[in-house]
Amino acid sequence: MVLKAPPSTLAAALGLCFACGCAGAQRVAEPEPTRESATDGFSPAELIQIGTDYNARGQSEKAVGVLQAALAREPGSAEGQFQLGLALSRLERLDEAIEALEQARRLAPDHIDSALLLGMACDLKGHNARAARIYTEALARHPDHPELLHELGVSLLMQGKTKEGLARLEQACKRKPEDPGLLGDYGYALLLAGRVAEARAQLARALELDPKQADVAANLAKAHMAAGDFAAAAELLERLRAASPEAVGLHLQLALARLRQGELAEAEKVARRAVSLAPENARAHFLLGASLDAQGKTDQARASFEQAHSLDPALEEAGRWLASHPRP
User: In degrees rounded to 5, what are phi and psi of residue 42?
Assistant: First the structure.
């Protein structure tokens, strides 16, 4: 499941003015410190403005240097701490980003973007329970906020709390019913909960709203598979594979869909491609073995199953096949 974007993408989504929420790029840029002047001659407020403008232009390294200089002189600036956390998160320096964002949240407890970005950074570090607490605390101040509900739902899913996560995502969808990213996560949660028909509908709607969501398309293919609609799954996976020809996971899903369809020669072809892309992937060898076995090519299948079992002795399906097909 892929429910989170990379840190740079998450941070970019929050590239707003701390105080008023306006797009940073719309501001009138302050003069930039030169190498000669460094930060001399600029007040902390001016440096924070310059750092904010760097963030708006995606110049994260420059933003960090200027903002750190500002905060050395004025550590109590909530906006400065938030902008520093934003820049650090884009650079994937998550521990430092979390520290700055904690400061921002302490200085301005009502600021939603600080809570969102802090929670996202914690989720990306694998601190999902901590992230959920941050979102919950922010929701106590901002009840029914859709982005907070969305991220809380995702954090709960990451903890294996499907029922609770699904409930939060449902709440968020009631407030933002046309948000493709939210609908994609909601659809995946429905799939996890076994509500396959609803999952297909929500994932299809999310993809209709934003056809570029490859992760949503992959999850929709999984929903089609769960529904037994292998032709629909294969059609979607073929499109995804054309766009990402080196993606091993897509080849594995497509090989399985073709196998379930009874398209055995095509399943073999796709599985062989998966093996060539990832020769150490036990599942690729297993699917190749399954497609060969289904065509009556027992000796070739045995070689693939043996390779799968060698790479992953815990792969029970391969072990069972080998036990039931001893060498003559």
Answer: -110, 140
- 31 secondary structure, DSSP code: P
Supply the angle between the helices 264-277 and 282-294 in degrees, to the nearest 10: 160
Helix (H, G, I), strand (E, B) or coil at 18: coil
For the residues of 8-60, what is the DSSP string, one character each? HHHHHHT-B-TTT--BGGGSPPPPPPPTTTTTTT--HHHHHHHHHHHHHTT-H
Superfamily, domain 7-248: Tetratricopeptide repeat domain (1.25.40.10)
Q: Which two tokens stand for residue 325?
A: 């097909």
- Count CB atoms within 10 A of the CB of residue 75: 12
Q: Is the pLDDT of residue 21 over 60?
A: no
Give one word for 28, left, alpha or beta, with left for phi > 0 and alpha for psi -120 to 50.
beta
Q: 131 versus 34: which is more confidently predicted?
A: 131
Residue 327: pLDDT band by 50, 70, 90 thresholds? confident
pLDDT digits (tens, 9 = 90+) for 129-162: 999 999 999 999 999 999 999 999 999 999 999 9
Tokens of 130: 């901590």
The whole-angstrom separation of Cα 239 and Cα 221 is: 11
By the 8 A CB rule, do 152 and 142 touch? no
| Measured CA distances, 276 to 272, 285, 306 (Å) | 6, 10, 17
CATH of 249-328 among 1.20.1250.20, 1.25.40.10, 2.60.40.2550, 3.40.640.10: 1.25.40.10
Question: Which of 102, 134, 98 shows the shortest CA–CA distance to 116?
Answer: 134
Q: Are 132 and 155 in contact (CB under 8 A)?
A: yes
For residue 254, what are the CA distances in angstroms to 32, 196, 264, 272? 52, 19, 12, 12
Domain parsing of the chain, residue ranges: 7-248, 249-328
Average pLDDT for 252-264: 97
Domains 7-248 and 249-328 fall in the same CATH topology: yes
Closest of 13, 16, 27, 21 to residue 83, by C-alpha: 16
